[in-house]
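Table S2 (continued). Query chain:
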Amino acid sequence: MTGRKILLVDDVPSNLKVLAAYIDSDYELFMATSGQKALKIVATNPPDLILLDVNMPDMNGFEVLKNLKADEASQSIPVIFLTSNDASDDIERGLQAGAYHYLTKPFDANMLRSIIDKALS
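Corresponding output:
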């Protein structure tokens, strides 16, 4: 294990399981089913990377990213959006807000692993 921590955030638990299966077992994985839960995890046990869904109730991924970037303790954590939102406006919005990358579902597992490795290098 590399000791690197990745936080997976998606309001659909089955999506979290599938996503975890795609990620190399060299990483320690944490999971949150809401933006609020994700922010609590980040505050107590900051990950090295966050994979974040956009479409979530109560607090969407853009709002979570805004909170992360506003906090000095979490603003440098790379965030990769993984979402079914493939509208160019959403992609541009995510990247302008400070996301490291924006992948749309369905995504290629090898590409995801490559992006994760690059973000953590």
